[in-house]
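From the pipeline queue, job 12 of 40. The input is one protein chain; the requested action is below.

Action: predict structure.
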Amino acid sequence: MAEERGGGLRGVLGLLRRRNPVLFAVGTLSSMSGTWMQRLAVGWVTWELTQSHSWLGLVAMADLFPTVFCSPVGGVIADRFDRRKLVLATQWASVAVTLCFYLVAVLDLLTPEALLGFVFVSGVIAGVDHPIRQSLIGDLVPPKDLGSAVALSAMTFNLARMIGPALGGPLLIWFGLQGVLVANAASYLVYIVCAMRFDLTGTPQRAVAPKASFLADIGAGLAYVMQRRDLLFALSMLLLVSLLLRPVFELLPAFAARLGTGLVGIRPEVVLSALTTTLGFGAFMGVLVAPIVSFRLGLRAGIWTSAIGSGLVIPVFLAVGQPLVVMALMGVFGCLLLINSVLVQMCVHQNSEPEYRGRSLSLQSMIFRAAPALGALSIGWFAERVGLEAAFDVAVAVWAVLAVVLFFQLRKTR
């Protein structure tokens, strides 16, 4: 693995003096805050309608699993066409779907099945959008600033993860799902305004991939990644973490309902908002720490260390019943997971040639979004039968075994 070590937080802060990174950060912060508001509200409404762990997993699956099919398409078109125009198209599509969702909620026609349908359509759009948006970062800054730009993108994404639930909880309590949906639609409009003002004239012209068939381009991107051991390692570790550890996020409403039963006078929605915000705060701190970890340990060691730490935290907070301790451990969990995610993303950016970057990032996006959906569906189904704590204990044990297998497999192929 090419161990490119960034300049840490100073490089990230230096980008805030430039037009493109600031516009990208503001737009991302707005749109992703809205997305996290809606995700919190949808999770809670699903729990209220069904009281089912399986339904929570199914909704997470509908939100995230379309990435398996849509992300490779997004990666190919990101390598073929104008990325700014593409990301504007996905944002306008998101506005339209959110407003339709709002009308159904206002007319009191919302059922678990209708909610599932809207979440699925939103997941399709997000699956196409994510690799395009991540690829766009390389068009907004010179190559020497790419590592810092990736860290800034992750920082704003995870600041949104903290701000969105903090705002979404009160909005859900005061205005219901409808108020959250209006706020989310407005958040996409802010990103649209920012994207229209990107200045792309001073950035290097990227190489454009040859226009073969879509399937041929997807296959070429997959073959490229399979030949790069640095990329293969990072994406394999991301797959294990996302499939078996990250579903804690998707099943958080069930944790909140369980924890809220012991808190007299506090509504479960407030507990969910607090837990999600704590996770977001931990994730934001993880983004700040990730460049330091990369500089001190290097990408490979940093990815291993953060993954192992994430796996160790889950059994601890499952065994603890004290709310404040659980919230603190959730923050640590969010921090470690995001260090892992940011370092994987930095690895993919730094070790992919420009003409393959969109397709490499589409695989990272596909794993990041689809694997937690599949994990949440499986763990949610298992939790219905053995309980939430036992289901995650098994998931952590399976993760540990597979991580050991991956470690020895990598040593064997060196």
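Job complete. The chain has a mean pLDDT of 81.
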